[in-house]
Amino acid sequence: MQEPHDHITGPTLEPLRRLIRAGLARLPWWLSEFLLFGLKQAWACLFAAIMLGLLIGTKLIWHDDWVVHRYDVLFGMAILVQAAFLYFKMESFEELKVIMIYHVTGTIMEIFKVHMGSWIYPEPSIFNIAGVPLFSGFMYGSVGSYMARVIRIFDMRFSRYPPFWVTVVMAVAIYVNFFTHHFIIDLRYVLMFATLVIYARVWVYFTTDITTLRLPLAVTAFLTAIFMWLAENVGTYTGTWLYPSSDGFRLVSFSKFGSWYLLLYVSFVLVTLVLKPQPPEGERADGKNLYRAPARD
User: Fold this and answer.
1) What pLDDT was estimated at residue 28?
2) CB neighbours (10 Å) of residue 28?
3) Are strands 128-129 and 212-216 parallel, antiparallel or unpaired?
4) What is d(CA 121, CA 119) in angstroms, rounded to the nearest whole number?
């Protein structure tokens, strides 16, 4: 069994990596591949999983009369987690730049949405901007972290990827619509259709260990958006943020799924600023084969 494309780095975690791979080596290849796929996905979304765990954990133990506010502790813990990711080389400084850009753009959108009454943060905090606690930006940053890490961990390749400027225009249009739909017509469904057109020919190739599979990019975005929607329900369940129509816990409207689907394309384009989409081996970015048949004698 060959080494994975992205393994746990650092002297502290190296024994764990070797233990996992030794255990998988005893299994049939197909079961090993399946389990390793799940482990790598969990490893890729580690930042998001930690943040969700902190939301649940602090909600269970926190008391309103404590001196330190829950939101401020979440902010401090998020900073420590990000520092740990850098220390253990689970993220590079180049990836951090993109994650922080996503952090800032997400916080700006949060400030606007809270101002417009789309949702509220009901608890007090010291570290906030216009009523938006600063930890909220790390929730967006965790999506960027997942995108950057999953591409690297699975050595993802992209066949027939559209021109970079087209993806940037698409991402900007999506981001702007999150603001303008409060004043003019909501173009959400038009933009969703546009993503299907622009990325219709794009296939994502990913390698678990010895097996390379592929999926349409739109399908991977759809599946990931489902998990984002489920994560948002964790936030509402813990009362971390509330919607105006909330009366106790209720599932977040599935219309929010469309928002996450579109937001994933914004995060993906930001990540491509550092991790330029690479075509599969032997193929150009436009999908044409690089190899030529050998000349006959």
Assistant:
1) 86
2) 8
3) unpaired
4) 7
> Mean of the pLDDT values across residues 147-151?
90
What tens digit of pLDDT does each residue of 25-72 get?
A: 788 888 888 888 999 999 899 999 999 999 999 999 998 889 999 999
**Rounded (5°) CA angle 242-245-249:** 60
Q: Nearest-5° angle of CA 195, CA 48, CA 207?
A: 65
In this structure, of 93-97, 108-112, 125-129, 168-172, the range with the lowest mean pLDDT score is 93-97
User: What span, in angstroms and rounded, lies between the C-alpha atoms of 223 and 144?
Assistant: 16
Rounded Cα gap, residues 146 and 52, in angstroms? 14
Residue positions counted in the chain: 297
Note whether 135 and 75 are within 8 A (CB).
Answer: yes
Q: Which long-range contacts (CB under 8 A, 24 or more apart) does 174-177 make?
A: 174/262, 174/263, 174/265, 174/266, 175/105, 175/109, 175/266, 177/262
Distance of CA 142 to CAs 7, 38, 96, 124, 202, Å? 19, 18, 11, 23, 25
Vertex 103 angle, CA 39 and 60, to 5°: 65
| pLDDT score recorded for residue 253 | 72
Q: How far apart are CA 130 and CA 291, in angstroms?
A: 57
Q: What is the largest CA-CA distance in the chain?
A: 86
Q: Helices (H) and strands (E) in the chain — how many of each?
A: 10, 5
Cα(first)–Cα(last) distance of the chain, in Å? 39
Distances in whole angstroms, Cα of residue 229 to Cα of each of 20, 101, 226, 233, 286: 30, 22, 5, 7, 33
pTM equals 0.83
- pLDDT of 6 > 50? The answer is no
The rounded distance, in Å, linking the Cα atoms of 24 and 31 is 8
Q: Output the CA–CA distances (angstroms, integers) from residue 22 to 15, 90, 112, 189, in the order listed.
A: 10, 22, 50, 48
How many Å apart are CA 146 and CA 98, to the nearest integer?
12
